[in-house]
Amino acid sequence: ISCSLVGSEMCKETGIERSVNKIDGASCQVNLKKKQATIEVDREIDDADIRIAIERLDFKVTGITTNRKEA
């Protein structure tokens, strides 16, 4: 899952990562220069849960893209 972000340029990378990583089955890496969070999931996770985890930190999620691997 890839999320496009808009927000402060302050270094909140670890805050976003920490918040998303609290979601069971999610692992997040943030690149603020690209304004993007990349989230690996090992189970189905509702996009709304990811959006809430990021937006509570005063970032705006402008899009979510899912790259599903076919079994």
Counting DSSP E segments of at least 2 residues, the number of strands comes to 4
First-to-last CA distance:
17 Å
- Unreliable runs, pLDDT <50, ≥5 residues? none
What percent strand?
A: 25-35%
- Helix-strand pattern: EHEEHE
How large is the count of helical segments? Answer: 2
Q: Averaging pLDDT over every residue, what do you get?
A: 84
Main beta sheet: 4 strands, antiparallel
Shape: globular
Note down, in words, how this protein is organized:
The protein contains 2 helices and 4 strands. The longest helix is centred in the first third of the chain and has 9 residues, at 13-21. Helices cover 25% and strands 32% of the residues. The chain has helices at 13-21, 47-55; strands spanning 2-6, 26-31, 36-41, 60-65. A 4-stranded antiparallel sheet has the order 2-3-1-4. 20% of the residues are buried. The chain has 71 residues and is α+β, with helices and mostly antiparallel strands. The mean pLDDT is 84. It is globular.
Helix-strand blueprint:
Layout: E1 2-6, H1 13-21, E2 26-31, E3 36-41, H2 47-55, E4 60-65
Antiparallel strand pairs: 1-3, 1-4, 2-3
Feature tags:
71 residues, 4 strands
Short synopsis of the structure:
Helix content is 25%, strand content 32%. It contains two helices and four strands, in the order βαββαβ.
